[in-house]
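Hey, resending since the last one bounced:
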Amino acid sequence: MPRAATTSDAFNAVAEPRRREILNFLALQERPVGDIVDSLNLEQPSVSKHLRVLRQTGLVNVRRDGRRMLYRTNAEALRPLYELSRIKKRAEAKEDDGPESDPIYKGE
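The structure tokens again:
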């Protein structure tokens, strides 16, 4: 089965480490492209490309302020990713504890 296009699936979009860096950077406040470029030490065309993908998947919103475009994360779109991360951590913690820690395994 072919993999979903990066631009149509939020999970594939955040699989790229630089996009996760950008999302983390935008988590605290809205910022223009120049701030992202300077703070993350990335090239401007690369940042623009990643922001385009993040916008197309709905993970980032943009608004115009005069000549500047300001980007911010879309918390609602990020929620499923956060939930999946929580489930994964819980499953990994249970795996580390072994089946003996599971009440069903103990017969409780």
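Residues 14 and 29 are 19 Å apart (CA to CA).

Sorry for the duplicate.
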